[in-house]
Amino acid sequence: EANDLLRAESDTVVRLRKSHTEMVNMNRELQEKSRAAESVKQQLEKELLQVQTTLDTERRTCSQGSEEIRELQ
């Protein structure tokens, strides 16, 4: 009976170590994916800012053109 308990305990230890190793690996993968996602997010935010700046410039240009047309009428 003691041998059975020892074997069961040993099996449990092996499973726990395996689970721990798997969790560590998953955690590492998730951290890498998180860093990659953060990098993409920052790039997209930078692109959004550039597009917004371009849009604002085009709106001002269009508005100035409309004013000039009104003045000419």
From the structure above, extract its key features.
73 residues; mainly alpha; rod-shaped
Biggest sheet layout: none
Secondary-structure element sequence? H
Given the helix and strand composition, which structural class is it?
Answer: mainly alpha
Number of strands: 0
Poorly predicted ranges (pLDDT <50, ≥5 residues)? none
* Radius of gyration computed on alpha carbons: 31 Å
Helix fraction, binned, reads over 70%
Strand content: under 5%
* Shape call: rod-shaped
Q: What is the average per-residue confidence, as pLDDT, rounded to a whole number?
A: 95
Count of helical stretches: 1
> Separation of termini?
104 Å
Coiled coil: 23-61
Keywords: Coiled coil
Describe what this molecule looks like in 3D.
Keywords: Coiled coil. With about 70 residues, the chain is mainly α. About 95% of the residues lie in helices and about 0% in strands. It starts with a helix and ends with a helix.
In short:
Helices cover 97% and strands 0% of the residues. The protein is an all-alpha fold and 73 residues long. Residues 23-61 form a coiled coil.
SSE blueprint:
Layout: H1 2-72
